[in-house]
Each structure stands twice: as structure tokens, then as C-alpha cells.
Amino acid sequence: MVPAGSQTRSGRVSRRPAMADAKTRSRVAEMEAAFERRARANGRTFEQEVEFLIERQQPLTPEERVATIRYLHSRCNGIQPSLTLDEIREGLM
């Protein structure tokens, strides 16, 4: 994270206070713990609870969105390699 008043990679000056980042991380940790408690109460695993929340198609709170995205990212094995030009051309034909 870039401290408030510091220059970012793009050359802009960050206006986000560092305390806001700490509060956000704290709220996300609280939300993940809430998902875990909710899953146990409903007799589901954490993953099943996240899938249930996604499938119910009701708007998620910002904290629920972050927790859901973190879960989905945790299931990916890093950055996937880009397609080569030959693979792209082959797909277009």
C-alpha cells in the first residue's frame, strides 16, 4: 500500500489514508469470520456457504463482496499465462 501523500507508480499522489486500509482489512477479516460462523450454523462448509450466497442472487454487502472475491481468488493458481499470437489466431479461425 502507498502511504497517504506518497507518489504512486503512475505518478499520482495517493490521498487514501493508511488507516483506511487497516480498517478495511479488519472488516474483511470480520466478514470472513462471519461467513465461517454462518456456514457452521447452516451445516455447510465455508466454500458451500459462499456458493450459496452467490447463487441466491441477492445484492451482497461490500464486505461480503470482498470476502467472496478473496475466496474465488484463493481457488486460482496464480496468474494464468497469456495466449500466444498463434493461439489467438487459431481461436479466431
Automatic annotation (TrEMBL):
Domain of life: Bacteria
Ranges where the record places region Disordered: 1-27
Polar residues composition-biased segments: 1-11
Protein name in the entry: Uncharacterized protein
